[in-house]
């Protein structure tokens, strides 16, 4: 039985922490360690035991298009989407990846190698998840080419739009913006009820999800794609076969156990991971907004409320990242760095340096220190050019 | 306590199997399921238990160049190489990968992106591991270009030679052949005493190893690189960061447990995995040679004996693949396929179709059926154009 007590450190506690610790706080990456306390309370309910002789083969199911996908994981994924109501899984192929990062690249390969004209342009509306730039550029492929902001994209020819909703870094709900007859990769890493209202059952050609951002198990490196077109699925599997001959069976097994458990208890108020996660994120956002609103230095986006089909009530977004801005023109990333808080500069997301992306998924201690340091900057009114 | 009884099915057993089973035998991939019987006998000695709250972070050790490498795995790798004496690990960076497949591509990225002139030529002496062609070609990178057989390579400019020893597919002991001032990736997937005499402690700039082919745990997708140059190691880590944000922690933990165990008992005659593996491979090779030598249809390479520093005696190679040839000019892959045995055609390895690569690492049943079908082809003297 998991209680939903969210640890809200008192101010004096966090000040003590801050005094004790002069350490740099890294909120650049979105390492989802915030949820570990939930799993600690679950004790050994999701423990997996793997004997030495198990899972030795490269193959999981030679009759599946995705031959390295464990059939039990496929079932667990379908059951979870069914219970949450966030995505359609019927008449789709599931492709498992070493995180959704690998799947994003598998999708770029699949869609571009099936295109008659190459290179295919890759675009995303700013501010975008900065990693897309790296994923589309590092190997200098002749198949595709990073073309930057989708809003100003005006080239002819085939394109792929990376569409992230809720968006990383700014938490907004998005639709594709190019709207010609190109391809869209729907990255739904954060389309789960602890981050955002589930307003519809998504039903697109190519949707990406990641275990990392649902339950916080980023170390397992498990993501999946729901793919309508068998030719696209086959090419993605070809990519994963050449790139890494499939995906860790140990991680797939553990993900199966954990996803099955959160599905089973998702309607149990006192135990549900999503209830816990929702309260946790909401409380962090309230505390952050309190600090920001109590001064005249920083900005945060405002999110409209919407009816969440999963919770059956109207809720707001509590994104995994805060898109923190600065009212004056200033390099906010450098300012925060001077104050020993590492964040991702807005310039890396195709935007201005007066914005930074701050992870909201750190451990409680780090989050407390972050709020305290933010409050200090604000108090000092040190925002001078 | 693991007994070293190698199951040698009697002829009548395998004929019965063959009659019972009309199934296609897949010896195309090198799926190392042969060793599972050893792990069954080990019972729960290498069982790993992973609680739900463990291994959640993307990070393993932020002070290591390879920040996603579990420190315990690094120790286990060093201890194993130390005990076997097959490779130097001092003054080297360890980079872990999702199989050595991913590391091979990380190495191509690292070496070519550090080269002033691009694309860098990628070569390998025929017959080569066919996957290198795919790895170097599928993304149509501008960084490197597959140029085929290393022996006929005469282009100027930077190159990377893929050097596999013992070689996949033909089991020969190799040295680089281009011998200009290019880079060499030493793929030592099979440089372990159950496959080949350990004649020296390898000590090169960039060496690849894989968990898959040591103990047979291919499903875990764990490989590692031993890298001398920190700049190369850093670029490999950059590749792995973008490609999949590191490597499954569950797999790393399980590999740690299993590698530590085989190291601990490697000198214990009755328990050692390497003693077991050596006897197993030797016995399979003897049985295969018996079938081949009893007719005038097929050929196999001959391997010289050499003194193995690990076993302290002179032994021969027992490669993980048989490089089976056909005395007449003929498409051997098609012939075997007609007889319901799938193999990899020599043409895919840059050679003639009169050769095929046959996995020697299948389960006992499949190996028995393979030998039986081979004997049948030979008896029928059906090698007619
Ligand atoms: C929008 C988005 N997509 C994909 C990923 C990749 O996640 P993973 O590779 O851990 O599955 C992330 C991680 O931060 C993300 O924010
Ligand atoms: C020579 C060689 N290198 C690398 C690999 C890749 O192994 P893995 O990706 O399973 O580590 C193989 C597998 O067959 C191989 O034969």
Automatic annotation (TrEMBL), chains A, B:
Record pathway: Plant hormone metabolism; auxin biosynthesis
The protein's name in its UniProt record: tryptophan transaminase
PANTHER family: BIFUNCTIONAL ASPARTATE AMINOTRANSFERASE AND GLUTAMATE/ASPARTATE-PREPHENATE AMINOTRANSFERASE-RELATED, TRYPTOPHAN AMINOTRANSFERASE-RELATED PROTEIN 1
The keyword Transferase is annotated on this UniProt entry: yes
Family: Belongs to the alliinase family.
InterPro entries membership: Alliinase_C, Alliinase_N_sf, Ethylene_sulfur-biosynth, PyrdxlP-dep_Trfase, PyrdxlP-dep_Trfase_major, PyrdxlP-dep_Trfase_small
Domain Alliinase C-terminal positions: 25-377
A GO term for molecular function: carbon-sulfur lyase activity
């Amino acid at each position: 039985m998991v209680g939903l007590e969210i640890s809200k450190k008192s101010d004096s506690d966090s000040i003590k922490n801050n005094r004790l610790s002069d350490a740099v706080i890294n909120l650049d990456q979105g390492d989802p360690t915030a949820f570990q306390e939930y799993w600690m309370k679950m004790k050994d309910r999701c423990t997996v035991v793997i004997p030495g002789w198990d899972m030795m083969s490269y193959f999981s199911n030679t009759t599946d298009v995705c031959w390295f996908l464990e059939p039990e994981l496929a079932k667990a994924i379908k059951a979870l989407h069914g219970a949450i109501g966030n995505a359609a899984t019927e008449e789709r192929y599931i492709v498992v990846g070493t995180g959704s990062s690998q799947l994003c690249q598998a999708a770029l390969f699949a869609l571009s190698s099936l295109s008659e004209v190459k290179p295919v342009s890759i675009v995303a509306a700013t501010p975008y998840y900065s990693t897309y730039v790296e994923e589309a550029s590092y190997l200098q492929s002749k198949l595709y080419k990073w073309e930057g902001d989708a809003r100003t994209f005006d080239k002819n020819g085939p394109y792929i739009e990376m569409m992230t909703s809720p968006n990383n870094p700014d938490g907004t709900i998005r639709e594709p913006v190019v709207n010609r007859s190109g391809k869209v990769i729907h990255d739904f890493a954060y389309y789960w009820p602890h981050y955002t209202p589930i307003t519809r059952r998504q039903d697109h050609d190519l949707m990406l999800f990641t275990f990392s951002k649902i339950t916080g198990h980023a170390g397992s490196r498990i993501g999946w794609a729901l793919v309508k077109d068998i030719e696209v699925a086959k090419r993605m599997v070809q990519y994963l076969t050449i790139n890494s001959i499939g995906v860790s069976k140990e991680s797939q097994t553990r993900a199966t156990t954990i996803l099955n458990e959160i599905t089973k208890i998702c309607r149990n108020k006192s135990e549900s991971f999503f209830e816990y996660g929702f309260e946790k994120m909401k409380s962090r956002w309230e505390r952050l907004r309190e600090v920001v609103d109590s001064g005249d230095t920083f900005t945060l986006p405002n999110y409209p409320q919407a009816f969440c089909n999963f919770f059956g009530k109207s809720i707001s977004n509590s994104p995994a990242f805060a898109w923190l801005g600065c009212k004056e023109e200033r390099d906010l990333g450098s300012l925060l760095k001077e104050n020993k808080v590492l964040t991702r500069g807005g310039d890396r997301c195709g935007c201005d340096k007066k914005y930074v992306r701050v992870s909201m998924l750190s451990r409680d201690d780090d989050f407390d220190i972050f709020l305290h340091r933010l409050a200090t900057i604000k108090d000092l009114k040190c925002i001078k050019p």
